[in-house]
Design brief:
Number of strands: 7
Distance between the termini: 30 Å
Strand order of the largest sheet: 3-4-7
Order of helices and strands: HEEHEHEHEEHHEHH
Helix content: 40-55%
Oligomer: single chain
């Protein structure tokens, strides 16, 4: 969390207008709450962009940390307009072997619930964090799928390949497990040149 506080402080000091909306995966002390879907996230971001444009801002760059970076990439990959992206230690990789081993059974349960017509109901899942934290929580099945399904819109590999001309700055700290394992470079190289 301190990463975002420092980032916002530095950008604001340089004269940039920065907004930090609460997104559906926001939470406290590294524990997400998952209070909505990826579509809900996109609506929040579109609202922030509209407000910034109304205030006269010409260039809009979306920055996100960890799962927020994946959300920013998914937003741009969906064709929604943004002038640039900053991924600070991206850390949510649906579709990767690492991710799939943690969510396989929960995704399977959520898909079955949606298939059975009860995707609006809650199910218990185990949330993992690349920082080694794990939590049990209840989430709405269809919302969970929008964020965690390997074949869904948050599949990072698919999203990053669809960025087109959108500039991407990827901040990959040496101490980040994603960097240490070589995944940061692997995914970054998927981005269009």
């Amino acid at each position: 969390f301190h990463v975002l506080v420092d980032f916002v402080s530095e950008m604001t000091a340089k004269g940039y207008k920065v907004t930090t909306p609460k997104l559906p995966w926001s939470g406290k002390k590294g524990k997400a709450e998952y209070t909505g879907s990826l579509d809900d996230t996109f609506e929040i971001i579109k609202g922030e962009i509209a407000s910034l444009r109304q205030s006269g801002r010409k260039k809009i760059v979306i920055a996100g940390h960890s799962m927020g970076a994946a959300g920013a990439v998914a937003f741009a990959a969906s064709g929604l307009s943004v002038d640039g992206l900053v991924g600070i230690a991206p850390g949510h990789f649906p579709g990767s072997n690492f991710h799939n081993k943690f969510v396989f059974f929960d995704v399977k349960k959520a898909k079955q619930m949606v298939y059975d017509g009860i995707g609006h109901q809650r199910l218990q899942v185990e949330d993992y964090n690349s920082g080694g934290r794990r939590f049990k929580m209840e989430v709405v099945a269809k919302d969970y799928l929008s964020l965690f399904d390997p074949q869904g819109p948050m599949n990072f590999g698919s999203s990053i390949e669809k960025l087109g001309e959108t500039p991407l700055l990827w901040v990959a700290p040496d101490s980040d497990p994603v960097t240490k394992q070589g995944w940061a470079k692997e995914y970054f190289l998927m981005a269009p040149k």
